[in-house]
Design goal:
single chain; mainly alpha; 3 helices
Length: 86
Amino acid sequence: MAFEIADIAPTGERLTEYDRELAPLYLRLLDAEEAGAPWEEAARRLLRIEPEQHRDRARLRFETHLARARWMRDVGHAQLAGAPAV
């Protein structure tokens, strides 16, 4: 994945280009949650940040991206096929 991962995922009600680029990552985060993976492992493997070195940043990155993944699953996916990203 060549896209740079932000520390804080988008929070608005509109799909963004960032969301489109990271849609596969959002799915992997949801899979990790379902599998019961520790947040530190998901941060390290999926979000490319070392929790041991940057604990607060890693936790924030994990929590905001998981929240966005849930939003995409529950609401935002409907925008993937239709409306342009903002």
